[in-house]
Design goal:
By secondary structure, chain A is mainly β. In chain A, 0% of the residues lie in helices and 52% in strands. Classes of the chains: A mainly beta (117), B mainly beta (173).
Chain lengths: 117, 173
């Protein structure tokens, strides 16, 4: 049996509220649910591994979006599994949205497609 | 704390036990991820199915996050005549894999068993319910999977027939 090591993510999120107070992921007791969403003006992915950080400005009345999309790829034939994580930050407001996907290696994809998530 | 660590697990037994399935998952005629009791290739037009495999995303190291958007897909297409299928089942509705709940064989090639959806190479959501990761064990519903083999399969018999990778994904925030 193999046990996956504790997840070591390349980025941590950080928000800046409109009163310039910061909330770092490590201080959030309930993950991103801890964020006072209506007060966020900047949402960042801060690098923990020497790769570029990323930032998205949150327009007024928009809801900030953050998630890590994780995949576990099972090989039914062998015991070779693979794990991937894509970080996403952005915002949505009515029929508008902006999402920045950050992949391993720090390549990015910016989209305003509401269906992207 | 922060992000959780998760693992793909399989539920087996009359009173369910969860175990790591990342070490391989054999589709067979057994309540097991390792048994090689084979699924028979049809000798005429038709599709035979394996016993079901109760797969979940399980938390192994707890976190302060929540998980949503659980999806399933294949990493590539299977050989002609083979297909994987899934259905969303709540953990509370777990049933032990047995011959009695194996999907009924079909008289048609390429048949999809009742209640199941054919797995594709595009991720399809099977459970979007938000569950916190503060407890270890299954997080969200099971993706109950079965294998179908039909008369068009020409790969021959064996105890190690290659299948596509199964990709379970989820959003954590």
């Amino acid at each position: 049996m193999k046990i996956q090591n504790r997840v070591e993510d390349v980025y941590q999120w950080c928000v800046v509220y409109r009163n310039d107070v910061l909330l770092h992921e490590e201080d959030a007791t309930q993950g991103f649910a801890s964020v006072k969403q209506e007060q966020v003006k900047l949402l960042s992915l801060l690098s923990l591994a020497g790769v570029p950080s990323h930032h998205v400005a949150i327009p007024s009345c928009a809801t900030p979006v953050f998630f890590r999309r994780r995949s576990i790829e099972l090989n039914p034939n062998t015991n070779e599994e693979a794990y991937k994580t894509v970080h996403c930050i952005g915002w949505k407001r009515g029929d508008e949205a902006t999402y920045l996907f950050v992949f391993d290696g720090s390549s990015t994809l910016l989209t305003d497609n509401l269906q992207a998530v | 704390m922060g992000a959780a660590t998760c693992q793909a697990q399989i539920g087996t037994g009359a009173s369910v036990s969860w175990a790591n399935v990342e070490t391989g998952c054999t589709f067979n005629l057994a309540d097991s991820a390792t048994s090689t009791t084979p699924v028979a290739i049809p000798t005429a037009t038709g599709t035979n199915f394996s016993w079901l495999k109760n797969l979940v995303i399980a938390v192994t190291v707890t976190g302060t996050t929540a998980i949503t958007n659980r999806t399933v897909k294949m990493g590539s297409s299977p050989s002609t005549g083979l297909a994987l299928f899934w259905k969303d089942v709540a953990v509370a509705s777990y049933v032990q894999a047995a011959t009695g709940n194996r999907p009924t064989a079909s008289g048609s090639n390429g048949a999809t068993p009742a209640g199941y959806t054919a797995m594709t190479t595009s991720a399809v959501q099977y459970d979007n319910t938000s569950h916190v990761t503060s407890a270890s064990g299954p997080n969200g519903d099971m993706a109950v999977c079965v294998l179908g083999v039909d008369f068009t399969y020409v790969g021959g018999a064996g105890s190690a027939i290659a299948l596509p990778n199964i990709v379970l994904s989820y959003d954590e925030a």
